[in-house]
Amino acid sequence: MRLVLDSNVVLSALLWRGAPHRLLLAIGGHPDVRIFTSPVLVEELADVLSREKLAERLALIGRTPRELLADFVTLVDLVEPAEVPRVIAHDRDDDQVLAAAVEAGADLIVSGDTRHLLPLKRHRGIEIVTVVDALQRLDGLEAGGSFRAR
User: What pTM does this model have?
Assistant: First the structure.
């Protein structure tokens, strides 16, 4: 299974221990599940991690933005989209997520974006799902099931 995680999911996974973090742990338990991202999305994550409003959380967990970014980069495969078509009128960053997923041949885009990405439900044959839905699908793989796009 090939996944692209929206930046909001990655940020939550790296900084807190909720469902996005559990998703990263679950992915780590499946050698046949891979996460893809692009250099632009990595840059966006680096920018967000370095914002002052996250300094307190970073101090609390004892990590620097550079350390968290390095950890994330070791988990992912990078793709460079050949093109980034305009799909989401109000958020170019979301277009980057969609383009990375297309370039990666992703099965799923995992997002918490209820305004732009999740309402699409699907982009060029790639399902867009919540973290909880992605976790349920991985649980199905753990139980011996095979992944099927709905």
Answer: 0.91
